[in-house]
Amino acid sequence: MDELFTYYDMFASKGPEYLIIIGFFIVIVAFWTFVNMSTER
Amino acid sequence: MDRRTFLKIFGSGVAGATTGNLLSPGRSFAKGDLSGQEFNGILVDTTRCIGCRRCEKACAEVNGLPIPDISESKNEDVLKEPRNTSDTQYTVITKYETEKGTIFVPKRCMHCNQPGCAAACLVKAMKKRPTGHVTWDSNCIGCRLCMISCPFDIPKFEYNKAMPRIQKCNLCYERFKKGELPGCVEACPTGALMSGSRRQILEEGKRRISDNPDKYVDHIYGEYEVGGTSHLYLSAVPFEQIGFRKDLGTVAYPEYSTGFLFAVPFIFVLWPLAMLGINRATKKSKEDEGHHEEHHNEKGKH
Amino acid sequence: MAGEKLNLVDVVPEKQEGPSFKRISDFIDFIKKELKPRGNIATPFNLISLPIMLLGYVLIVLRLAYGLGQPITNLNQQYPWGLWIGFDVVTGVAFAGGAYVLCFIVYILRVEKYHAIIRATVLNGFLAYLFYAGAIVLDIGRWWNIYNPMIGNDFGVNAVMFLVAWHFFLYMLAELVEFSPAIAEWLGLRRLRKILGIMTLGAVVFGITLSTLHQSGLGALMMMAKSKIHPLWYTEFIPILYFVSSIFAGLSMVIFEGSITHKVFSYQVDASHHEHYNDILVGLARICSVAMFGYFFLKVLLVVHEHAVQYINSPMGYWWLFEVIGFILVPCFLFASGAQQRNMAMIKFAAIITMVGIILNRLNYTFLAYNWYVPLSEKYWPSWIELIITASIILTEVWAFRWMVNRMPVLKAPPAWAVEKEH
User: Fold this and answer.
1) Predicted complex ipTM
2) Residue B106 CB: number of other CB atoms within 10 A?
3) Is there a contact between B230 and B194 (Cβ–Cβ < 8 Å)?
4) Closest-CA residue of chain A to C336
5) A15, B241, C6, C138: which one has the fewest Cβ atoms less than 10 Å from its Cβ?
6) Chain C: nearest CA to A39, how far in angstroms?
7) Domains in chain B with CATH codes
8) What is the distance between the alpha carbons of residues B239 and C89, in angstroms, rounded to a whole number?
9) On the CB side of B135, how many CA atoms lie within 13 Å of its CA?
10) In CATH, what number does C43-414 get?
């Protein structure tokens, strides 16, 4: 069957995934600061 | 197909002679004996099916299910609706209007080479037999995960019974053990159904396609789908037009659960050690301990 | 920290010494006495819950007599699993996850702050398994065969369900061992109490391992439904999503359940505990928030990984966004800001939203996003009988919980003889 011979990139999602990870690293700094902020102390 | 050519190629005349008149030539290949490890299956040539529903009736008779009325007028009515196998019908014929006219497709359990239902069963009630038959047994607890795990939605559950069973085609396993043909194959008047070992029916299917390239699409449904099935289908039109899913992939369904299942022993070894390690590492040293205890008794705690 | 620890010794426990049994008949008399209801029977809760429970029991008998078909359940050939497995079992087990998370924090990491709520949480977890996972008996069609995977008829070692079944069974035993010191204290069995105390660490380590595996295993059950679950939800990493979500699902349940029990049983705990309890809630809210933050990114990453981004702009995609934003991102933020402002109402509200989100998520896998291509008119919706039986099971669990809390040292202080031996 024809579709058995069409190439598809199994790793196409890796690039966007790494970009999301970089975004995660940036957001986690703000998030961690926010979580550990305390209005009292 | 020309019967003589067929006999010449596969020599099933010999088989017919040895296993009795039930195995009339043209309907079956030689039966593998029970010890044989070869899968058996049925080749369904949808170009030959005329929608007479005799397979349905024979199936019901063989399996003790309600006998359907298959008179011509009744058939016309029944086939108007889209149909599905049910807890009282192991096989059904569905009618499709396609670019090449009306096509009838008998549907039943595909008897996957690596069945999802059998992999899902926690008591091995659903089993793939060495002979290729996928059968159900009464030690089933009725969890219905086989229904969820079947890519073809084949196992059916008797919801309206206090003591329900899972119902599906078992490729006439009991008849097979007696050397008989599956009920549907025996009843088929046009040779649309042909039983034999998977290797044989696959070769036959390929031969039909190469002999009649204009008649068939160049694909045998079940050759690679979900890791291969023991029921194989030939068609004149692309399979999606006659109700087959083309998005199931070629990976055997049990493979999808192996990632988790194969990780289980690792967790069983690593987790307890990691936790005992952390527990030991967070333990206070001797002096702290004394201090701690003192504190304990004085304050009390829970 | 340690100074804030529960100051419970000056509150004299009701039965300082506990019962003593000289003869078997003493024991029977004690149990008889304990079985009797205490206090006012005609409370509004009792008056509302009792009829529902009784109706539920009648319906359970009918279900066993007539099978699962209409009108008992709306299950059909297209939707083999409905409310009973999707909510009672799969969601119920996620909600019971608080027990293993807190056991890890208290017994493995030795964070003493949370010690005060460990018994109530473990009891809640144990009862959840007993009743909700026990509800599986109603759902499985051939329930009289339920012991088959246990006795080897047959050991289906190929199956994820086999693992889950055994884990349920073993984990119930582990949780019973974890909770058993409270039972021994109730019965005044000192020597047994000592032995059970020693067994706690073993039960905890074993229990956490089992929990890791069956929380994720419940997700792994759906692995072979690849062609049926919507691509936004189906991924090869469902087990990891189930495991991570069980952390905040369980803790949200702890927050929710705790806020009710501390109101209802407030006479059992003293004032200093109440102040300390708010510290605990703030801590739990932080953990939930961080876990949900991670879970949110996992959800997004997996949609990209599964090449399912194009489905976002479709009705099912909006449903996915509703779940991920409304029930993960929003409560994640509410937990964080509730913890920051020590706003208990906000924390409890976030816990409730989180729990609704977990229910939606688990039901998505069992029937909402399962066979998603089926037209709405043919979709499965729970029947009223399924709902009543579910409510009846939950209420029975609440009654059992109340009975035990009123008699055993769950919230109240353990008897003095047991305190020194703790740890």
Assistant:
1) 0.88
2) 23
3) no
4) A35
5) A15
6) 6
7) 3-114+175-253 (3.30.70.20), 258-299 (no CATH)
8) 39
9) 15
10) 1.20.1630.10
